[in-house]
Amino acid sequence: MDFAGAYAWPNIKYILQGLFVTLEVSLYAITLSFVLGSILASIRYSRVPGISHAVGLWVESIRNLPLLLIIFFAHFALPEVGLKMNVFVSTVVALTVFESAMISEIVRSGLNSIDKGQTEAGRASGLTYLQTLWHIVLPQALRRMVPPMISQFIALLKDTSLAVIVALPELFHNMSVVKSQNVNYTMPMFLLVAVLYFTVNFSLSQLTKRMELKS
User: Fold this and answer.
1) CATH number of the domain that residue 184 is part of
2) What's the chain look like in SS3?
3) What is the structure's pLDDT at 92?
4) Domain of 158, in residue numbers
5) What is the tens place of the pLDDT at every residue in 41-73?
């Protein structure tokens, strides 16, 4: 094992660049999947005839597919029908599609946990259904959603490592490049990347615990 060589500044800089890409991809995917997942959950919660059933079928289909397949589909199959994207965008799209299905179930469960009397009271006071959902039901549900939502975001951040298969220059990819330079770099690189993943995810898990205590 060559810790000194493995942890030379050029290698560390390259690893940190990979970490930045991992965090950037995660941030985009988290934001987009939360928005899309919330929309999907709201449609299912509202039980719009036909549409809710179609959305439910979509969500269940995506949830039962492996993420790696979706990453391959976004990167290799979509260009075949004219949707050409670079590896960064295709990874964000794949993660967004997959995670939005997961998040939609968290949001829907949160909405369903609110007593139906809240909706009835809102409607009785003259609010429309959407106003009731936005001003009364959703704010209460959000407090209950936060801990499982953050746990899902932690899973998303770890799932970015699967994009190594399409050569996205994220943390795991850059680690693989560095350790391939010298067999003695393998253990130091694995340890460094493990520490970086642990630091980020542990920070998020601690945030989850604080949210749970507050709720």
Assistant:
1) 1.10.3720.10
2) CCHHHHCCHHHHHHHHHHHHHHHHHHHHHHHHHHHHHHHHHHHHHHCCCCHHHHHHHHHHHHHCCCHHHHHHHHHHHHHHHCCCCCHHHHHHHHHHHHHHHHHHHHHHHHHHCCCHHHHHHHHHCCCCHHHHHHHHHHHHHHHHHHHHHHHHHHHHHHHHHHHHHHCCCCHHHHHHHHHCCCHHHHHHHHHHHHHHHHHHHHHHHHHHHHHHHHC
3) 96
4) 3-214
5) 988 888 778 899 999 999 999 999 999 999 999
Query: Into how many domains does the chain fold?
Result: 1
The answer to whether residues 96 and 138 touch, using CB atoms and an 8 Å cutoff, is no
Whether residue 142 contacts residue 133, with contact meaning beta carbons closer than 8 Å, is answered with no
